Amino acid sequence: MAFTHLHVHTEYSLLDGACRIEKLLDKAQEMGQKSVAITDHGVMYGVIDFYKAAKKRGIKPIIGCEIYVAKRSRFDKIHGIDNENRHLVLLCKNETGYRNLVAIVSKAWTEGFYSKPRADMELLREHSEGLIALSACLAGEIPRALSVGDYDEAKAAALRYREIFGEDNFYLELQDHGLREQAHINPQIIRLSKDTGIPLVVTNDCHYIEKEDTKMHHILVCIQTNRTVEDEDTLEFGSDEFYFKSEDEMRALFPDCPEAADNTQKIADRCNVEFEFGKTKLPRFDTPDGSDNREYFRRMCYAGLHKHYGENPKKEIVDRLEYEISTIDTMGYVNYYLIVYDFIRQAKSMGIPVGPGRGSGVGSLAAYCIGITGVDPLRYDLLFERFLNPERVSMPDFDVDFSDERRQEIIEYVTEKYGTDHVAQIVTFGTMAARLAIRDVGRAMAIPYTTCDTVAKLVPMELDITIDAALERVSELRDLYESDKQVHELLDMARKIEGMPRHTSTHAAGVVITDRPVVDYVPLSMNDDSPVTQYTMTAIEQLGLLKMDFLGLRNLSVIDHAEQMIAKQILKEIRSRLQFLSSVGLDYLMLSRPAGTLSGGESQRIRLATQIGSSLMGVLYILDEPSIGLHQRDNDRLLETLKHLRDLGNTLIVVEHDEDTMYAADYIVDVGPGAGIHGGEIVCAGTVDEIKACKRSLTGQYLSGARFIPIPEKRRQGNGKFLKVGGAKENNLKGIDVTIPLGEFVCVTGVSGSGKSSLVNEILYKRLANELNGAKRTIGAHQDMVGIQHLDKVIDIDQSPIGRTPRSNPATYTGVFTDIRELFASTQESKMRGFKSNRFSFNVKGGRCEACQGDGIVKIEMHFLADIYVPCEVCKGARYNRETLEVKYKGKNIYDVLEMTVEEGLEFFSAVPKIQRKLQTLYDVGLGYIKIGQPATTLSGGEAQRVKLSTELSRRATGRTIYILDEPTTGLHTADVHRLIEVLHTLVENGNSVLVIEHNLDVIKTADHIIDLGPEGGDKGGMIVAEGTPEEVARVEASYTGRYLKRILERG
Length: 1052
Fold this sequence. Notes:
By secondary structure, the chain is α/β, with parallel strands linked by helices.
């Protein structure tokens, strides 16, 4: 019958076991032993090395561990009570047993560590399946009880262990190392076996291989306990019998119990753990867009290919990429590439410095294309050797360098993404190199430090140098070795322990990421309060687990600091300028926005931001209505900015109609009292209170409340029909659904950049213009629009000029000029001369002055200066020839009529209803002061818009028209806003619908329905924040519009 050692401590029972795995298995092979167990103290560090070395020699490896069992719970950690740990040997029968042993050992470290990694009965019961337990050495619970004469306690413990592990899965160990305590308890263990039926097994608690190694082992223990061989309190084993004995030696220990030796082989036969090497076990990776991983990987590869090599890369480049993609897919490494890509992308997005990449993977074109590496393999003629032979199944190496100061952030990211139980750092071992071995052994042997230091320094400072190599190369060391007995003994002993693992630490770069919890594959221990694997990086790779090198590189941190120092002032300036843009309410703008698409107000505020950044003093700034296009919230920011400029020591002159700006001003100059010919005077000047007290000032009357824009007593309910836009997602709109009640005055509000223009101008107006007006415009992105059948036309009344040349004027735009020309053509003088109505047009030959072609002015082109315009010398600016001007109506010629104001024209044409009605609409919209023939190029945007409004008012209403206006109050005084509101409400009263984009609270408060977008501008906007009547919107806390509107409504 054969014999198997089931209780063996390799060098991985750190500084306690001295059985080096290779030499141990050589010894077993020499003895003819067919199986051997590894049972290191509380750890499984050496399991994979032991397994592979045993298999190589044809020896069956038995996987096990001598664990520590807490006296109470593993969670109890009270000094003086929970210091005692009981030993127990556990051996794996199968894969289930291996997983359970891994779980017990791991939790002993992560949950039960208290001077030692401790399990407890609860843990043993939970993970007993697939395990065989042995009662262990004198430190086991049963031997301890027997040592103090408590047989009953020993028996109870034995029965408990059998109950936990099951019949035939618990054995009582017999050991005889010549120790008095063992001689005392061994008969009782045999008795216990007979009383309980629990079988016996003989073991030798091997701590070293040869009997003569006992001294070496004693020195190893002294190194561990920081003692010397001369100390009286050293941890001596008490005999030299803890070596790897032959079967005959083991059977001779207990000749009366041959079954105890036989049972070792029976146990060995039952233990059949097999490790699977080379099969990759990659964790799951979920693509950001939910697409198939292989499809996503291919898409990423080609996106990078076009980025690096253009839209039409050479065929050989595409072929190489296709070959790599195919090989990666065939080998099952797509997830590997995506996982690496993901954490590198994350690091870069967090501003963590990342190296260009190291390892064999740098030769991969696919890795370069998706951003894993920063090295172009084609430029440097790199070949990815692992892809030259598809039969070589081995994952490429991607060694990734991060800033050493921020490496932990990436480990935390990976841990959070894949789960704390799926990620662990990797153990590494500090071994006793030549110099360290000499010093450690010398101290343990109580040799003077100077002697040890002298000998150690004679060993060359070279990587992987051995004592044998040093003796061969360094004559001085060899002479000392041969002449000095103490040195000779020192070096001989140091050679025996040289290369043994001394302590554990955490690998500087290694991280393992698993598809199942790490403890399903690898046991864990603790280093510096952090869990680490008990298997080395090499073992983890062999098991097919994903091992990553996250190296914290100091150089990257130094370079990053240098870059930050270089960029500090530049970044400070950039941040400062961006802050200036934000402070003037432009934080919603994209920096790449074309200048041509900016509004006048936006352009002005950009120039203002530039001036803020200059921090100049003593400068006079002139601003023309800077609040244009600003929400009240953004206007408050603007006012703070203007005050800051003032406080720097500058003077600001601001042309403005905004009430808040007036209240913020130190001094106001009010020009008026009316517009056009009714203005041009300084009505009053002073503080805001002085302006309010000035009865002649129209501005003061609105500020004081003497005049005001009333809140409607009742909100309209509309006509019961609706226009609905579904899935609006143009620009920053977030796929919103918008319902616009028809037959109402509707305001679209929100902070600057919140998506108002995208919704109204890009989607709503363009879709309606195409469907109702036959236009062909590119419509903004949306899913559908319902309710168009309720409308017959859409009219966009914007502030663009009514004409691009001086020939266009209010009379031509409104059509009243046609009526006036016909009136002149109907006079007796015209009939006598045969003049028709076209004679009075300055656009065609006949009645116009040909010298200036009816412009009234002549352009003189300058070579080095801007062109200038001068009155025509022939007609003196009258635009018509002498014959035409001789025709008069009520004493006025056609030129005289065009020079009249609208007010004068109303009186002059009071007897001509057709003309009087059109002039009346111009007067009603507040344009009584403009000239009938005033060139369109001299009209402001607000004036041009009101000309358009007057034209609409003069038409017969159908009740199915929708009017769209984008900030119609721009440039308007409060009195003009008052008139505008009345006009807009007139349009609604006629059965039409009016949709207005507006920031002016006086307009918003009169609306029937509000759609408020936001909550912010740009990417943070594009959603509906609130909708309903002004009163309903004012109750929505999240709405900036609602907050300001609430104050206005409360004020009344």
